[in-house]
Design a protein that fits this description.
The chain is α/β, with parallel strands linked by helices. It has a single domain, classed as Class I glutamine amidotransferase (GATase) domain (Rossmann fold), CATH 3.40.50.880. It has an 8-stranded mixed β-sheet with strand order 2-1-3-4-14-13-12-9, with helices on both faces. Strands 6-5-7-11 form a 4-stranded mixed β-sheet, with helices on one face. Strand 12 and strand 13 form a beta hairpin. The model has no long low-confidence stretch (mean pLDDT about 95).
Length: about 200
């Protein structure tokens, strides 16, 4: 069973429907006890970093998420769910994240010809082998909506990069931990293949 973390920030139902379309059982849940028992965990998210980390803390979900990742069970972060894994975000101030991945979350640079937020389809360049990107064409495009991006301290975690004014990390992978800046649930065939790969772990 795949559990999707509900902290009132994110298009949870669209993520659930994408898994169900693949024949994978997925349940939306906001209970620390149910998260503790999850076989696979998905942390989606849309919105402000500060509000998201506060919502996770208020619901007692931070430690269950960390414990799930540390246990070696499969975990997938999507968009804000990727950013929340990092030490610090500089979105509207400076805010501590889950501290699972060393690094920070920064804004796209201000430039006259650079549209922010980065919104729409863009290519993900693969870096090394990836279990969740297996079977997806090298030139595949995915759907993005974000103004901030992650900067991990350890480049060995990087599974994908994307160009938008600067080259930024758009996918990470470390053992049981997977996370994407793009929205696989909105990315048609390539996105569904990624979710199928995750469900099959």
């Amino acid at each position: 069973m795949i559990h999707i973390v509900d902290y009132q920030m994110g298009n949870l139902r669209s993520v659930q429907k994408a898994f169900e379309r693949l024949g994978a059982a997925a349940e939306i849940c906001d209970s620390p006890e149910r998260l503790d028992r999850a076989e696979k965990l998905v942390l989606p998210g849309v919105g402000a970093f500060r509000d998201a980390i506060a919502a996770l803390r208020e619901r007692g979900l931070i430690e269950p998420i960390r414990a799930h990742i540390e246990s070696g069970r499969p975990f997938l972060g999507i968009c804000l769910g990727l950013q929340l894994l990092f030490d610090t975000s500089y979105e509207d101030g400076q805010w501590p994240g889950l501290g699972v991945i060393p690094g920070e979350v920064v804004r796209f640079p201000l430039a006259p010809d650079l549209k922010v937020p980065h919104m729409g389809w863009n290519r993900v360049a693969r870096f090394g082998p990836s279990r969740v990107l297996e079977g997806i064409p090298e030139e595949a495009h995915f759907y993005f909506v974000h103004s901030f991006y992650v900067v991990p301290r350890d480049d060995s975690l990087v599974a994908g990069r994307t160009q938008h004014g600067v080259e930024f990390v758009s996918a990470i992978e470390r053992e049981n931990l997977f996370a994407t800046q793009f929205h696989p649930e909105k990315s048609q065939r390539a996105g569904l293949k990624l979710l199928e790969n995750f469900a099959a772990l």
